[in-house]
Amino acid sequence: MTGVGVRREGHLLVVTLDEPRTRNAMTQRMAHQVGAAMDELDQDDTLRAGIITGAGGFFCAGQNLADADEGRFARTDSRGWWGFASRPPRKPLIAAVDGMALGGGFEIALCCDLIVAGGTTEFGLPEVGRGMVAVGGGLTRLPRRVPYHLAVLMALTGERVSARTLAGHGLVARIVESGPALAGAVELGRAIIEHPRTAVGHTLDVIRVAGASDLGTSILHQDSRVSVDELRLTPDYREGVASFKEKRPPRWLRGATHD
């Protein structure tokens, strides 16, 4: 198989970049395949979260330059670069990163809500060394996730930084010491989808806006998006309060808001 593979792992959708000859470098065709997978994740109510990973022990080497040289860039009209950078799925998306995530590969990981990485993984934005600019979101997202001077160092020198260093700055959520990062990402995804769908959806929406906006804008967005008066009437909210009062684990209803 080459291109992009898509499979289900219970309520998780696993999207695998699989172009071994080019270390999973993204082509326009692959971006459209990723975009279709993100559409599936959004539209299928049985899916609760997504994972994007790379095959062959390598995450992604970024834009396929041969494709780009012919004017075919790894982006779509509906979702932007990499098939989701401008319009990510409404559900949580986890990057499972092994080997290296360089250029657009790093930008793909930055577009995700969480990053799980192997212990020897490295990240980098090498575009300046090729006379290029990282236009797929890396230059805007990276300084929001790590200290400014580290972002500048990576962007202006192309220097690779280890997953352990980035974990120390909070960018990488978990390090997988042995085995593929995908196993750690699946474990993390399952932990997320144990919680009620409505609560996860509202929380993710608000925190995404908060991470990309000034404080005043994010508070206004939260006030418009999440109504406590409405939430407190839902079965999940009532069960959460009841379980707290009764000092027991919650017994979530299996239905539209949770399955």
Rounded radius of gyration (Å): 19 Å
Mean pLDDT: 89
State the CATH topology of the largest domain: 2-enoyl-CoA Hydratase, Chain A, domain 1
How many H/I helical runs?
A: 11
Give the CATH level 1 class of the largest domain: Alpha Beta
Strand content: 15-25%
Per the principal axes of the C-alpha atoms, what is the gross shape? globular
Which CATH architecture of the largest domain would you pick?
Answer: Alpha-Beta Complex
Number of strands: 11
Q: What is the CATH homology-level superfamily of the largest domain?
A: 2-enoyl-CoA Hydratase, Chain A, domain 1
Q: State the helicity in percent bands.
A: 40-55%
**Backbone structural class:** alpha/beta
Distance between the termini: 31 Å
Question: Strand-and-helix sequence, N→C?
Answer: EEHEHEEEEHEEHHEHEHHHHH
Sheet bearing the most strands, described? 6 strands, mixed
- Pick out the low-confidence regions: none
Structural domain count: 2
Widest sheet: strand ordering: 1-2-3-6-8-11
